[in-house]
Amino acid sequence: MEILQLIVSGLANGCVYGLIALGFVLIYKATEQVNFAQGDMMMLGAFIALALGNDSHLGAPFWAACTGAILAMAAIGWLLERVVLRHVFGQPQIAVMILTIAIGFVLRFVAGAAWGHDPQALESPAAGVNFRLGGLILGLDEIATIAVTVLLTGLLFLFFARTRLGIAMQASSQNQLAAYYMGIPVKRIHGLTWALAGATAAVAGLLFASKGSIDPSAGFLGIKAFAAAVIGGFGSLPGALAGGLIVGLIEPFASRYVSAGYAQIAPYAVMILVLIVRPHGILAQVGAKKV
Prior knowledge:
Blueprint: H1 2-31, H2 38-54, H3 62-84, H4 93-115, E1 130-133, E2 136-139, H5 140-162, H6 164-174, H7 176-181, H8 186-210, H9 221-232, H10 237-257, H11 260-277
Antiparallel strand pairs: 1-2
Helix pairs in contact: 1-5, 1-6, 1-8, 1-9, 1-10, 2-3, 2-4, 2-8, 2-9, 3-8, 5-6, 5-8, 6-8, 9-10, 9-11, 10-11
């Protein structure tokens, strides 16, 4: 029974990693850029919901606070692309990587200045609600995290596979100049992609803050999520979720049966192993680039 309890806990944490990893993959699929501020966007989304819902002056209902945070992070994602990232359009990948790392530092500073550095919890109706299944304890927050993650991953997969906008996003990633000549508004597509990644980050932040506490340093979860994206396959949406679940499951088992210190490095050890054995990731979508 202890093993089942560890699996449930690992799956819930892995879903949060998977959602952050989805943000990495969304931006990479559409723009071939890597956003190392994705974890910090997750953290900021959680704090916005906390400010809207927990603040005594606003006191918005939980669902209204969640909706407000998702919309706010979509707007922030769009603004980041429009005001900052668009100015390095066409520059080497390393320039974008350094810029997004700097954006992450700025977001952590803003969150610390606005809300402080003490851990805070989002008041969620799922908090503290547990179900017993024999000797197994299932938290409603864990069930909600798993369900929302699976649903969102499926919707995003269908969006990229079946909608004109999703296909246009992939086309702009394959060859931006050719996409432009085919009438695809590449820059607008990039802005929409960053908005979608911001909204996804907010969902991850809401789930994370609902099942624990949030502080500005929570943005560093993005590093584990990056490892999850690499493990699963950086261009694959199902791979991002699979990688997140792998990382989430490794941590509690490593902490319980090896040591807490090893649990912190285990995801990166797995990432190195995957890069050696299968460099493109477990569920990689490798194909020739169309020119």
